[in-house]
Amino acid sequence: MGRIFITGSSDGLGMMAAKLLIQQGHQVVLHARNQDRAEEALQANPKAEAVLTGDLASISETIDLAKKVNKLGRFDAVIHNAAVGYRESRKIMTVDGLPHVFAINSLSPYILTALIEKPKRLIYMSSGLHRDGDSSLNDILWEQRNWNGFQAYADSKLHNVLLAFAIAEKWKDVASNALEPGWVATKMGGAGAPDSLADASLTQVWLASSMDPEVLKSGGYYYHKKPRAVHPDARNTGVQERFIDKCAEISGITLPE
């Protein structure tokens, strides 16, 4: 059985994935934004090994979270599940002066990936909306464009795929994959979402724990455990490198080779 860390696991798909992995006998460490959410996370999954706190909207708190993870030792898998949705009708800025959606959805997975000791598997939660993302990366911080919450979310989900594929290219000893759960009735997806909520967390659980030969590959993108087409520029190594470079510049953290 493995040790698995899941960001954003106090509710939604992260909480559901944690529950399934614990039922399978894995040691699961949860993550919540603050202590109140941490207590909720443990109430939902009382058999979790631990719950760590950190606000992923803050670069310093994300760095501290990585340190907390490393203090617990090496993990077999890290699931980058935490995200905020596409309903931010105005541009919310973080303490670091970054758009809220970018800080949580795009930059925090990069920082955690760079700083957490390399696990055997990395799983990045994307979305089918990533295909609408802007691959030019010309205005990644929304300094020139008029704010559009939907587009900011789509961009961030493309960033997740770019990061997953970049890691697959760079770290040959790590299986790095991305997935889309479908449009499901979570707090983010909304009550009217049409896809199966019960099935939505199964793919991240599969990628984190299965010995299926498909899972042991790297650089895949999946929906309901099946490969799915990605944004036409997602496998462009030049675009991947540009995203990595921008994250390094913004965060001051270099991705290890």
TrEMBL record:
Record's protein name = NAD(P)-dependent dehydrogenase (Short-subunit alcohol dehydrogenase family)
Which family does this protein fall into?
A: Belongs to the short-chain dehydrogenases/reductases (SDR) family.
Lineage of source species: Bacteria, Pseudomonadati, Bacteroidota, Flavobacteriia, Flavobacteriales
Transmembrane intervals: none
Could you tell me the superkingdom of the organism this chain comes from? Bacteria
* InterPro entries linked to this entry: NAD(P)-bd_dom_sf (IPR036291), SDR_fam (IPR002347)
Keyword field contains Oxidoreductase: yes
Coiled-coil stretches: none
What are this entry's molecular-function GO terms?
oxidoreductase activity
Keywords assigned by UniProt?
Answer: Oxidoreductase
